[in-house]
Structures are given as structure tokens and as C-alpha cells.
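Human:
Care to share another protein and its fold?

Assistant:
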Amino acid sequence: QVSLVESGGGLVQNGGSLRLSCAPSERTFSSYAMGWFRQAPGKEREFVAHISWNGLATNYADSVKGRFTISRDNAKNRFYLQMNLLKPEETAAYYCGAAGRISKYAEEYNYWGQGTQVTVSS
């Protein structure tokens, strides 16, 4: 079930930055926790960051702490992931998801987007 639309992916050089956006396609997700995950070819979907429904609680994978920032604007029904100092090994499809509570586990997310590709060249 596709209910979210990601954008902002692309090709960036090692050390570069991108800002991903996530917008619901059919409904408001202001009462949902939101998360960003990524999946490289041949690998499992991996937790990147999540944010509570009110934006007061955030959490990040250890590998991205200090470089990535998750945020949300409930008034605009938009969710974001600012990614700085990107590395080639972070090349993957990035997905946003919505869940009833903050979680690091993909199986707890009820709604997903189709993903946006991020490619980091070395």
C-alpha cells in the first residue's frame, strides 16, 4: 500500500549533502511516528532515523548520528531527512514510513513510500 511519496534523491559526491522529503499522497500523518529507512541491493531494509508524532523525540542509527537530521512540519504534512557528509557506502534506496509509535523495526511501519534513490560517488 503506497501512501507516501519520497523525493529529493539523486547523485552526489562523497561528502556531499541531500535533503529528502516525504509527503503523504492520500491522508494526513500528523498523528503518526515517521521513520526513514534505506535498502541497498541484496541487503535488508535498514533503520536510519525516526521521529515522534509531535517531533519531540528523535533517534538515529549510530552510523548516521551527527550527520543526518530528521524533522517534520505537521502543518504542511511533510517530513524530511537532511543528510550531510554522505559516504559511498550509503548508496541505497531511501524509504519513509509511518507507524503508530516510534520504532527501529520496519515491520512495525504500516505505510511506506516507493523510495527515492541516493547514489554517492567516490
Remarks:
- The CA atoms of residues 97 and 112 lie 4 Å apart.
